[in-house]
Amino acid sequence: MGSIESNTRKTVSKLEDQIARWSAKLDDLVAKVGAAGQDAKLEARAQLDELKSKLVVARSKLDAAKAAGDDKWDAFKEGVESSWKELESAFKKLTH
């Protein structure tokens, strides 16, 4: 049982670290958009707002999974992974 708990904690820790990196990157992108021309700002703002929304959802699902505890991780895992894929895809779309 300890191994499952340890693996869950490691996974959650990695996801939290990635959320922190994405949050910092989002802050950088917002700053860059602020320095861009008006047309670029309008287009980028919509994408950044979508990205912020996905980040909030991913963070919320991860927080819910953490609150549920190790024994309920499997019930939340699919939702966390789904949000993660959407967020990762949105970041790739915006940054490439």
Please, could you describe this protein's structure?
With 96 residues, the protein is mainly alpha-helical. The protein has a single domain, classed as Up-down Bundle (Four Helix Bundle (Hemerythrin (Met), subunit A)). It has 3 helices and no strands. The longest helix has 34 residues. The model has no long low-confidence stretch (mean pLDDT 81).
User: Can you count the beta strands?
Assistant: 0
Choose one word for the global shape: elongated
Chain-averaged pLDDT: 81
Class derived from helix and strand content: mainly alpha
Q: What letter string, H or E per element, gives the SSE order?
A: HHH
First-to-last CA distance: 42 Å
The CATH class is identified as Mainly Alpha
Largest sheet: none
- Give the proportion of residues in helices: over 70%
CATH architecture name: Up-down Bundle
Using the CA coordinates, give the radius of gyration.
16 Å
- Number of separate domains: 1
Contiguous helical run count: 3
CATH topology descriptor: Four Helix Bundle (Hemerythrin (Met), subunit A)
Outline the low-pLDDT stretches: none
Strand residue percentage: under 5%
Attribute tags:
96 residues; mainly alpha; Four Helix Bundle (Hemerythrin (Met), subunit A); 3 helices; elongated
What is the compact description of this entry?
It contains three helices and no strands. The protein is mostly helical and 96 residues long.
Describe how the helices and strands are arranged.
Layout: H1 2-35, H2 38-68, H3 73-95
Helix pairs in contact: 1-2, 2-3
